[in-house]
């Protein structure tokens, strides 16, 4: 299945964007789609071969799931390639536009259960929440 690509421009320097994207204390603040969801737990062993495990749940406890996998490759402040536990691949690229502007590009293999558009919308909602969090904090 053809990968899905989403991207966003963040008005912050790359070192801050990188840190907020891969630091568990920040991940729990932005890694969910809508205000009725949250990320109560995030663990990450940020190294090649390290595992990440983020718990996403509806605030009413009606549904939740783990987003987890292995980090395959890290190019410092450039890109991270990971493999989810379900076998799908994810790449996150960071591009310096200028000293205070960073582009984040996510490329991910879609899952079969949900439409491509639903997945694009959900992933973009999380990336947009990340963008707003980084710029406000």
TrEMBL record:
Residues 13-135 form the Activator of Hsp90 ATPase homologue 1/2-like C-terminal domain. Transmembrane segments: none annotated. It holds the Pfam family AHSA1. InterPro entries: ASHA1/2-like_C (IPR013538), START-like_dom_sf (IPR023393). It comes from the Bacteria. SUPFAM superfamilies: Bet v1-like. Belongs to the AHA1 family. This is Activator of HSP90 ATPase. The lineage of its organism: Bacteria, Pseudomonadati, Bacteroidota, Flavobacteriia, Flavobacteriales.
